[in-house]
Design brief:
Helix content: 25-40%
Mean pLDDT: 89
Strand content: 5-15%
Radius of gyration: 16 Å
Strand order of the largest sheet: 1-2-3-4-5-6
Low-confidence stretches: 1-5
Length: 184
Protein backbone atom coordinates (compact mmCIF):
# COMPACT_ATOMS: atom_id res chain seq x y z
CA UNK A 1 0.00 0.00 0.00
CA UNK A 2 1.16 3.48 -0.75
CA UNK A 3 0.24 6.81 0.79
CA UNK A 4 1.27 8.80 3.82
CA UNK A 5 -1.05 6.94 6.20
CA UNK A 6 -1.36 3.34 5.06
CA UNK A 7 -3.79 1.15 6.94
CA UNK A 8 -2.64 -0.48 10.12
CA UNK A 9 -2.14 -4.19 10.39
CA UNK A 10 -4.99 -4.17 12.93
CA UNK A 11 -7.42 -2.87 10.29
CA UNK A 12 -6.18 -5.36 7.70
CA UNK A 13 -6.45 -8.24 10.19
CA UNK A 14 -9.90 -7.20 11.41
CA UNK A 15 -11.32 -6.82 7.90
CA UNK A 16 -9.77 -10.16 6.85
CA UNK A 17 -11.41 -11.86 9.84
CA UNK A 18 -14.77 -10.28 9.04
CA UNK A 19 -14.52 -11.29 5.38
CA UNK A 20 -13.57 -14.85 6.27
CA UNK A 21 -16.50 -15.24 8.65
CA UNK A 22 -18.88 -13.57 6.20
CA UNK A 23 -17.85 -15.99 3.43
CA UNK A 24 -18.76 -18.90 5.72
CA UNK A 25 -22.02 -17.33 6.96
CA UNK A 26 -24.67 -17.97 4.36
CA UNK A 27 -27.34 -16.59 6.71
CA UNK A 28 -25.80 -13.08 6.65
CA UNK A 29 -26.15 -10.55 3.85
CA UNK A 30 -23.15 -10.83 1.53
CA UNK A 31 -23.10 -7.10 0.69
CA UNK A 32 -22.26 -6.24 4.30
CA UNK A 33 -18.60 -5.66 3.43
CA UNK A 34 -17.38 -3.86 0.33
CA UNK A 35 -14.33 -4.86 -1.64
CA UNK A 36 -11.20 -2.76 -2.03
CA UNK A 37 -10.17 0.20 -4.15
CA UNK A 38 -7.17 -0.38 -6.42
CA UNK A 39 -4.23 2.03 -6.61
CA UNK A 40 -5.21 3.52 -9.96
CA UNK A 41 -8.74 4.30 -8.81
CA UNK A 42 -7.42 5.73 -5.54
CA UNK A 43 -4.90 7.95 -7.34
CA UNK A 44 -7.58 9.29 -9.70
CA UNK A 45 -9.94 9.97 -6.77
CA UNK A 46 -7.20 11.73 -4.80
CA UNK A 47 -6.49 13.94 -7.82
CA UNK A 48 -10.18 14.88 -7.74
CA UNK A 49 -9.95 15.92 -4.08
CA UNK A 50 -11.00 12.81 -2.18
CA UNK A 51 -9.12 12.77 1.17
CA UNK A 52 -6.17 10.39 1.37
CA UNK A 53 -7.34 9.08 4.76
CA UNK A 54 -10.60 7.92 3.20
CA UNK A 55 -8.78 6.35 0.25
CA UNK A 56 -6.33 4.53 2.54
CA UNK A 57 -9.33 3.05 4.34
CA UNK A 58 -11.00 2.10 1.04
CA UNK A 59 -7.87 0.28 -0.07
CA UNK A 60 -8.68 -2.17 2.75
CA UNK A 61 -12.47 -1.84 2.99
CA UNK A 62 -14.48 -0.01 0.35
CA UNK A 63 -17.60 0.47 2.44
CA UNK A 64 -19.50 -1.43 5.10
CA UNK A 65 -23.20 -1.80 5.73
CA UNK A 66 -23.29 -2.27 9.49
CA UNK A 67 -26.96 -3.01 9.83
CA UNK A 68 -29.91 -0.92 8.68
CA UNK A 69 -28.92 2.26 10.51
CA UNK A 70 -25.11 2.51 10.21
CA UNK A 71 -23.24 2.68 6.94
CA UNK A 72 -19.71 3.58 5.91
CA UNK A 73 -19.62 4.52 2.26
CA UNK A 74 -17.41 2.99 -0.36
CA UNK A 75 -15.67 5.40 -2.73
CA UNK A 76 -18.40 5.47 -5.37
CA UNK A 77 -21.15 5.95 -2.82
CA UNK A 78 -19.20 8.62 -0.97
CA UNK A 79 -18.78 10.62 -4.16
CA UNK A 80 -22.58 10.55 -4.58
CA UNK A 81 -23.21 11.81 -1.02
CA UNK A 82 -21.01 14.91 -0.86
CA UNK A 83 -24.11 17.10 -1.10
CA UNK A 84 -24.27 16.70 2.69
CA UNK A 85 -21.17 18.90 2.93
CA UNK A 86 -22.75 21.90 1.24
CA UNK A 87 -24.17 24.84 3.19
CA UNK A 88 -27.80 24.57 4.31
CA UNK A 89 -29.81 27.77 4.71
CA UNK A 90 -30.63 28.31 8.37
CA UNK A 91 -28.23 25.68 9.69
CA UNK A 92 -25.80 26.85 12.38
CA UNK A 93 -23.24 24.25 11.23
CA UNK A 94 -20.28 25.38 9.17
CA UNK A 95 -20.90 23.07 6.25
CA UNK A 96 -18.38 23.26 3.43
CA UNK A 97 -16.92 20.74 0.97
CA UNK A 98 -13.51 22.27 1.66
CA UNK A 99 -13.86 21.47 5.39
CA UNK A 100 -15.80 18.20 5.32
CA UNK A 101 -16.04 14.93 3.43
CA UNK A 102 -19.10 12.72 4.03
CA UNK A 103 -18.05 9.11 4.75
CA UNK A 104 -21.28 7.54 5.94
CA UNK A 105 -24.59 7.72 7.72
CA UNK A 106 -25.82 6.89 11.20
CA UNK A 107 -29.63 6.91 11.34
CA UNK A 108 -29.79 8.98 8.15
CA UNK A 109 -27.46 11.55 9.71
CA UNK A 110 -24.19 12.18 7.86
CA UNK A 111 -20.80 11.33 9.32
CA UNK A 112 -17.87 13.43 8.10
CA UNK A 113 -14.11 13.43 7.88
CA UNK A 114 -12.82 16.75 9.15
CA UNK A 115 -10.65 18.14 6.35
CA UNK A 116 -9.86 21.50 7.92
CA UNK A 117 -9.72 21.20 11.70
CA UNK A 118 -8.01 18.69 13.91
CA UNK A 119 -8.99 15.82 11.65
CA UNK A 120 -10.98 12.82 12.67
CA UNK A 121 -14.54 11.71 12.23
CA UNK A 122 -17.31 14.15 13.07
CA UNK A 123 -20.99 13.57 13.74
CA UNK A 124 -23.88 15.35 15.35
CA UNK A 125 -24.55 15.10 19.11
CA UNK A 126 -27.25 12.56 19.98
CA UNK A 127 -29.63 15.20 21.35
CA UNK A 128 -30.55 16.59 17.91
CA UNK A 129 -33.44 15.21 15.90
CA UNK A 130 -32.61 17.00 12.67
CA UNK A 131 -28.89 17.06 11.96
CA UNK A 132 -28.96 20.42 10.16
CA UNK A 133 -30.31 22.03 13.36
CA UNK A 134 -27.32 20.95 15.44
CA UNK A 135 -25.17 23.79 16.72
CA UNK A 136 -21.91 21.88 16.62
CA UNK A 137 -20.17 18.75 15.51
CA UNK A 138 -19.04 16.08 17.92
CA UNK A 139 -15.75 14.25 17.38
CA UNK A 140 -16.61 10.57 17.11
CA UNK A 141 -13.06 9.28 16.62
CA UNK A 142 -9.56 10.58 15.82
CA UNK A 143 -9.57 8.83 12.40
CA UNK A 144 -11.79 6.80 10.10
CA UNK A 145 -9.82 3.69 10.92
CA UNK A 146 -10.31 4.29 14.67
CA UNK A 147 -14.01 4.94 14.13
CA UNK A 148 -14.40 1.59 12.38
CA UNK A 149 -12.15 -0.42 14.71
CA UNK A 150 -13.15 1.12 18.03
CA UNK A 151 -16.79 2.04 17.47
CA UNK A 152 -18.23 -0.16 14.71
CA UNK A 153 -16.22 -3.39 14.93
CA UNK A 154 -16.89 -3.69 18.67
CA UNK A 155 -19.92 -4.10 20.93
CA UNK A 156 -20.06 -0.25 20.91
CA UNK A 157 -21.84 -0.64 17.57
CA UNK A 158 -25.04 -1.69 19.40
CA UNK A 159 -25.06 1.66 21.21
CA UNK A 160 -24.39 3.66 18.04
CA UNK A 161 -27.03 1.74 16.06
CA UNK A 162 -29.50 1.97 18.96
CA UNK A 163 -30.04 -1.79 18.87
CA UNK A 164 -32.49 -2.61 21.66
CA UNK A 165 -31.42 -5.38 24.04
CA UNK A 166 -34.18 -7.75 22.94
CA UNK A 167 -33.13 -7.34 19.28
CA UNK A 168 -29.37 -7.83 19.70
CA UNK A 169 -29.54 -11.50 18.70
CA UNK A 170 -31.21 -10.55 15.38
CA UNK A 171 -28.74 -7.87 14.25
CA UNK A 172 -26.62 -9.29 11.41
CA UNK A 173 -23.67 -6.96 12.02
CA UNK A 174 -23.50 -8.04 15.67
CA UNK A 175 -23.73 -11.68 14.56
CA UNK A 176 -20.81 -11.10 12.21
CA UNK A 177 -18.78 -9.38 14.96
CA UNK A 178 -19.50 -12.20 17.44
CA UNK A 179 -18.57 -14.91 14.93
CA UNK A 180 -15.32 -13.08 14.18
CA UNK A 181 -14.56 -12.85 17.93
CA UNK A 182 -14.94 -9.05 18.01
CA UNK A 183 -18.04 -8.86 20.24
CA UNK A 184 -19.16 -11.01 23.15
Amino acid sequence: MTGANPASSRLVTTVAALRSVLAESTDLLSFTLGGTVDEGTAAAAEAEGVPREFLDFCRVLDGASCGPSVQLFGLEEAEEHQFYCGPVVGSPLELSPEKLFCVGLIHDTPVFLDRAGSGGVLGIPDDHWEWVDAERFERLAPSLEAFFLDRLATPEYAHIALVEDELVEYDDWLKLLRRAGLAG
